[in-house]
Amino acid sequence: MANPKYAFFKGKIVPMAEAKISVMTHALNYGTGVFGGLRGYWNDKQEQLYIFRPIDHFKRLLQSARMMRIELPYSADDLTRLLVDLLNAEGYRENCYIRPLAYKSSEMIGVKLHGVDDDFTMFALPFGRYVQNEEGAHVCFSAWRRIDDNAIPARGKIVGAYANSSLIKSDALLSGYDEAIVLNEDGHISEMSAANIFLIRDGVAITPPVNSNILEGITRRSIIQLLKEDLGIDVVERDIDRTEIYIADEAFMCGTGVQIAAITKVEHRNIGDGTMGAITSRLRDYFFKVVSGQIEKYHSWLTPVYEEVPAK
Ligand code: PMP
Predict the structure, then answer these.
(1) d(CA 199, CA 251)
(2) 6-126 shares its CATH topology with 137-291
(3) In principle, which of 76, 100, 277, 279 could form an S-S bond with 122, CB 3.0–4.6 Å?
């Protein structure tokens, strides 16, 4: 992974080396930050970098901030403009990943949310695959449970909550799996460590509802629309039992990092015939066309970065 040259930090774009915080920062000590993750897709033919659904990502960031009593002087439109400026400074001609982070910035001791200063930073780096095995991931059921809305709300992308995701992901990877399915305390499927999940049963797509301790994924929302409107596939949002994945025809995970990755094996069991299913494959092909600006209907999801194309 290449390092970014710049960061948006304390109100302006600065060289990365200047974007430093103190060890006493509240967010570092208590996990009191909220973040986002967006992707920029490079279209070589059009020589354009497209940011995928920035307004929706920044709206969710502001909602997460609200839950954590983090106040920012920016709207979703302002944050999109800041991001366009940042990406123009970087001049990427390749796919990239963008990390906005709003955080409690006071240098102090004290576990609370009120009366603590807030700040915002953002950086972007070139980025390829997040899950190596996008065409056929082998996953397990995590022994960890998903955080509950009454403990740390999963619908907020809260820094401290990613201790849960990190425990899940490392145990899965170090046991030889690509990812893990995470169950709620009640035993129903919630999501992956950092991605949402869909099953296909008898031609219908099924995904856990927004009140099942999931992050309300922008990719999930996009896929629901693409499946229904463009691929003619019904989508049902309902609780999913663990054993449904054993008998599903197809399964896939989705998210900004993961994009769309087929799940073809869960522990010692194949899903379907153990290879990427037909619907997952069609959806994946279509999704990559949408995000890279090849489908007219979805141009409104994309914000172009460059008025002037950066030199090679
Ligand atoms: N769930 C979790 C826990 C995540 O961290 C992510 C990645 N942001 C997702 C789902 C997918 O969300 P999105 O499609 O908005 O990236």
Answers:
(1) 4
(2) no
(3) 100
Question: What integer is the mean pLDDT of 96-124?
Answer: 98
Which tokens hold the place of 226? 């693409």
pTM for this entry: 0.97
Per-residue model confidence as pLDDT tens digits over 184-212? 999 999 999 999 999 999 999 999 999 99
SS3 139: strand
CATH superfamily of 137-291: D-amino Acid Aminotransferase, subunit A, domain 2 (3.20.10.10)
Separation of 194 CA from ligand 1 center, angstroms?
Answer: 5
Q: Which residues are catalytic?
A: 157
What gap in Å lies between CA 35 and CA 103, rounded to an integer?
8
Yes or no: say if 213 and 148 are a contact pair by the CB < 8 Å rule: yes
Q: What is the CATH number of domain 6-126?
A: 3.30.470.10
Q: What are phi and psi of 37, to 5 degrees?
A: -150, 120
Joined together, the tokens standing for residue 166 give 């990190």
Per-residue CA distances from 195 to 88, 159, 282 (Å): 29, 16, 19
In the chain, domain spans:
6-126, 137-291
How many CA atoms lie less than 13 Å away from 184 in the CB half-sphere?
Answer: 20
Q: Is 217 in the pocket of ligand 1 (CB under 6 A)?
A: yes
